[in-house]
Amino acid sequence: MTALPDFRLETYFSRWEFTARHHLTASDAQTMTLSELLALADDEDRHAFENLPLSYTETFGDPALRQAIAATYAHADPDDVLCFAGAEEALYLASHVLLGPDDHAVVLTPNYQSAETVPLSLCEVTGVALDPDRDWALDLDEVAAAIRPDTRVVSVNFPHNPTGKVIDAADFTALVNLCDERGIHLFSDEVYRGLERDPARTLPQAADLSERALSLNVTSKALGLPGLRIGWIVCRDRDLLSRLERAKHYTTICNSAPSEVLARIALKARETILDRNRALIAHNLPMFDAFFAEFADHFEWRAPDGGCVSYPRYLGADGVETFCADLVREAGVLLLPASIYRSDLTPTPTDRFRIGIGRRGAEEGLAAFAEWMRANR
């Protein structure tokens, strides 16, 4: 119904991501080198990578990769997996396959911009806001009230970007059941799954709970391998998955063959990589706690339940937009201000910023941040 707007996050990153000295707003966990990843490979996969023909691959994805992905689900087979060039392509194509001009979608806010703007370009959309005054709680009654007879999709994201919120498993299961009862597809962005601070709070994957649900994941975030550009949707509705595969014919057709082999190495070593990344987050969190404790008059801080980003509140009179702009220009410390997460569907906080806690080098970034704060605030 509307043309896609500029992608605010990517526009902001195009200016600062590779020029700022301290990238303190990264949404991905610490990456690794190619040699480090290959060291985790078994003999078969290492041989496959070193002797790989650089030809086209299957549109659905490398069969061995799809098998490795399916093994991370309780109720999925390789035929329930469709691979994409990252999560963005998957989100974009799923919206186009599931939604048309006579349809309606429900989307959580704040959100990753395309989760809102792509559906909005296709149909009417209603936003349901997480409540910052109740620890970013999700009100299931609000979701139910937003659903209409023409609702085709409810889109959620847990662990949540940018807040780090993880809802209770009982609420997530109730959300899945609500969608199933109404004949709605739940689109569940699960790209941070595996980075929960308390493993007991890890949510089930939507595709394991419902044959209609779509589970989105990617190597980029929890595994820290965004350079591979490998994402996937798992859905047990084979007809829907076939429609998604045909839509992919108009975008990437197939994935990068080397990336698919590297992704299956990563998936097979998933627990090793996740253990490393969770340990890094646990190492970093006390430093962030100490920083925000020192500047408690300027910030409200809450560590994330899961994932590697959080969404603190800035209390300064100058406002978060000016604060973030001055910080990156004067101290080289990059944060993402609230305007990046502005929604056209619901009111969203205007005094927040996203900060990342999942990479090495946090000490240097926080030290530069603290030095600037002491001099300027």
TrEMBL record:
Q: Does the keyword Disulfide bond apply?
A: no
Classification via Gene3D superfamilies: Aspartate Aminotransferase, domain 1 (3.90.1150.10), Type I PLP-dependent aspartate aminotransferase-like (Major domain) (3.40.640.10)
Asked if the keyword Membrane belongs to this entry, the reply reads: no
Which ranges carry the Aminotransferase class I/classII large domain? 54-357
Q: What top-level branch of life does the organism fall under?
A: Bacteria
Cross-referenced InterPro entries, in alphabetical order? Aminotransferase_I/II_large (IPR004839), PyrdxlP-dep_Trfase (IPR015424), PyrdxlP-dep_Trfase_major (IPR015421), PyrdxlP-dep_Trfase_small (IPR015422)
From the record, give the transmembrane residue ranges.
Answer: none
Q: What keywords were assigned to this record?
A: Aminotransferase, Transferase
* One MF annotation (Gene Ontology) recorded for this entry: transaminase activity
What Pfam families does this protein's entry cite?
Aminotran_1_2
Q: What is this protein called?
A: Pyridoxal phosphate-dependent aminotransferase
Q: Which organism is it from?
A: Nonomuraea corallina
